[in-house]
Amino acid sequence: MIVTAPKTSYLSNMTKTLKMLAAQHNPVVGDIKGNKALAETAYAEARDKGADLLVLSELFNLGYPAEDLVLKPAAVEHSMAAIHELAELTTKGPAILIGSPWAADGKLFNSILLLQGGIIRTRYDKRELPNYGVFDEKRIFDPGEGAHETVEMNGIQVGLAICEDIWYARVPAALHAAGAEVLLVPNASPWRRTVNAERHSTFSAWAKTGVPYLFVNQVGGQDELVFDGASYAVDFDGAEHQLLGDFVSGTAIVTYDGDSHRFVPADDPAKLTTDWEAEYRAATLALGDYVNKNRFPGVVLGLSGGIDSALTAAIAVDALGPDRVWCVMMPSKYTSSDSLEDAKACAEALGVRYDNINIAPGVGALDEMLGAAFAETQPDTTEENIQSRLRGLTLMALSNKFGHMVVTTGNKSEMAVGYATLYGDMCGGYNALKDFYKTEVFALSRWRNTAVPLGALGPGGEVIPDRIITKPPSAELREDQKDEDSLPPYEVLDDILRGLVDGEEDLDEILTRGHDAATVRRIEHLLYIAEYKRRQAPPGVKVGSKNFGRDRRYPITNRFRDD
User: Fold this and answer.
1) CA 554 vs CA 199, 253, 298, 497: distances in Å
2) Annotated catalytic residue, options 128, 137, 149, 163
3) Among 36, 58, 438, 542, which one carries the catalytic annotation?
4) What letter does residue 327 receive in the DSSP assignment?
5) What pLDDT is attached to residue 12?
6) Is 77 annotated as catalytic?
7) Residue 412 above 50 pLDDT?
8) Which of 176, 250, 252, 308 has the smallest number of CB atoms closer than 10 Å to its CB?
9) Given this model, what pLDDT does residue 563 score?
10) Does 65 sit behind a cis peptide bond, omega within 30 degrees of 0 on the bond before it?
11) Annotated catalytic residue: which of 19, 126, 293, 546?
């Protein structure tokens, strides 16, 4: 519902223009005090620049997504108290539009509040609660209800909506019918590689009503999600104004002209990144925020001389700087001289600390310890996994001793089919490549060698030695091992997995693309039986349409097969 104070003129400059500061910031979930300080800093800027209104993002003062933290009464109470304190700032200055959880009438809402003249002038409660993919707001919040209303500001009838409200036509159409001349829409809209196209195609359907809108989005990483910001405005005729870039915090002044029904930005249009640069920046921001918001001094990772660990190291350096990244080579008797050389060359190119800790003595000790129990058996994946688990143990020991978070280095292809060792190479706090298929890892590595992304803290040039990219991938857990000894070529594997995972395709649909039937059935089998491993994997940033984690939750105990 919308709760409206008596209609009063709060602004003396009734000129049919509304000057706004769009604030694209990076709140921390649960840090009500810190987020309030961010809002206060933005408010001071809005006041100094002569703005009428400061617009902040969805659930700004508690952070989004707060998940079950919202169900903690104290969190909601403190958030509401912060709103009342911010309202006091507006006695002699600009208004504020800010998101917060709100408890009223025995219900809990995802709300935005218009603070003006020292009071809460208006509250709007989100109507369309997303309940798909990574979202479960219907479990937490009650939907807003009642007739849609507008609020007058500077002679302009303003409609309010929140994020999901504009993914459907119902709310914009109702606000248009209520007389809204412009919509202000705070968002916490997470990024994925298709999101910009999805936003513009979806919003254009209802934007044909001719109601201009301002889209102000959150930026930053939060566990498995990353928010791109990319705040913009759209005129009555569909003309767009890109106010702020993607994956960066910032503010932009924009004035809405009520006579022309157009937005007038104060600065030149911002530019958005695309393709591999966007994906790389998303991964970098997500990892950096996870480390920084959880207050780790840095990260430690196993640098094997393979492409996954090399790309992970590059992302970590670009996110945190070389001084906060510690790479460790952990060779065994199966580690090739090429891998030793490549790992060292990669570490030197990135400028990170690099140590070599030989696990051979540990492998020998375990061979002796388990000798009697393993008598009269032949070596198999058990012995291979012991090596991987010793590496995980080594990295966790360094983490425990020095405080650095362990970053795992597996990719989505490996996670899909269980080509990873539980408590071994899966051991760690975060996985930057969790939602990247192996073929995407290759493409992303090649791209990084040709460019330095905006905001990166690492060096330019070939930071991933070419031989790492071109040599056949290998776990090097037995003599002359290659990934393709156990798996089909990654181009084949990834196409099958995109069908099974991202597309939820039937086997017949996948077979129409020319794949071998036995191979497809084997990959399907591996996908299902590895679910228990994925449940125990660390979080990692979502970049595709369906990630392992919040997007895709299959039963571990499951006998269904599509055959």
Assistant:
1) 28, 46, 33, 15
2) 163
3) 58
4) E
5) 41
6) no
7) yes
8) 250
9) 65
10) yes
11) 126
Whether residue 56 contacts residue 63, with contact meaning beta carbons closer than 8 Å, is answered with no
CA dihedral sign of residues 433, 438, 439, 444 = positive
pLDDT the model gives residue 560: 81
Mind listing the pLDDT tens digit for each residue in 216-274?
Answer: 999 999 999 999 999 999 999 999 999 999 999 999 999 999 999 999 999 999 999 99
Query: For 454-513, how does the pLDDT look when each residue is reduced to its tens digit (9 = 90+)?
Result: 999 999 999 999 999 999 877 766 677 677 777 899 999 999 999 999 999 999 999 999
**E strand or H helix at 512:** none
CATH 3.60.110.10: which residues of the chain? 19-272
Contact 229, 218 (CB under 8 A): yes
Tell whether the model's pLDDT for residue 389 goes beyond 50: yes
d(CA 358, CA 5): 70
CA-CA distance, 472 to 504, in Å (whole number)? 30
Task: Quote the pTM value.
Answer: 0.93
The DSSP call for residue 482 is -
CA atoms within 13 A on the CB side of 301: 32
126 is known as an active-site residue = yes
Q: In terms of Cα–Cα distance, which of 200, 189, 157, 175 is closest to 59? A: 189
Q: What does the pLDDT average to over 346-370?
A: 96
Mean pLDDT of the residues in the chain: 92
Token reading at 399: 């983490």
276-535 folds as Rossmann fold (3.40.50)
Condensed to tens digits (0 to 9), the pLDDT of residues 269-324 reads 999 999 999 999 999 999 999 999 999 999 999 999 999 999 999 999 999 999 99
The total of other beta-carbon atoms located within 10 Å of residue 404's CB is: 21
Would you put residue 337 in left (φ > 0), alpha (ψ -120 to 50) or beta?
A: alpha
3-state secondary structure at position 146: coil
The CATH architecture assigned to 19-272 reads 4-Layer Sandwich (3.60)
Count the alpha carbons within 13 Å of 58 in the hemisphere toward its beta carbon: 29
In the chain, CATH 3.40.50.620 sits at 276-535
User: Would strands 219-222 and 232-234 be described as parallel, antiparallel, or unpaired?
Assistant: unpaired
Tally Cβ neighbours within 10 Å of residue 558. 10
Q: Are 272 and 246 contacting, i.e. CB atoms less than 8 angstroms apart?
A: yes
> Annotated catalytic, 163?
yes
